[in-house]
Write a structure and sequence with these properties.
The protein is mostly helical. Helices cover 77% and strands 0% of the residues.
Length: 98
């Protein structure tokens, strides 16, 4: 799974919906859309948040995709951590776009 891409797509939806609020006069609708954008941003942060289990699963996937080579555990672990960090950085970047 491309975690950074998933975070980017989720944040792009939030930005798109947020942009709609400029065209809408009904305040109730605007508030509902703003609620949706906040929910999407929280979801993006949740997707990007690393846990030891998530990193472990991603590292194992990378290892399996590389043909299960021996002796490269640390390489795959660090790559998984890097992927999460990139996704997390992206999510934080959009925390205050409104």
């Amino acid at each position: 799974m491309d975690r950074k891409g998933l975070v980017a797509r989720t944040l792009a939806k939030a930005e798109k919906y947020y942009g709609f609020t400029r065209w809408i006069d009904d305040q109730e609708t605007v508030q509902r859309i703003l609620g949706l954008t906040a929910k999407l941003r929280r979801r993006a942060r949740a997707i990007a948040t690393p846990t030891e289990n998530r990193i472990r699963r991603r590292a194992r996937t990378l290892w399996e995709e590389s043909g299960r080579p021996s002796g490269r555990d640390l390489e795959f672990w660090l790559q998984a951590e890097r992927e999460f960090q990139e996704a997390e950085d992206l999510a934080k970047k959009y925390d205050s776009f409104d």
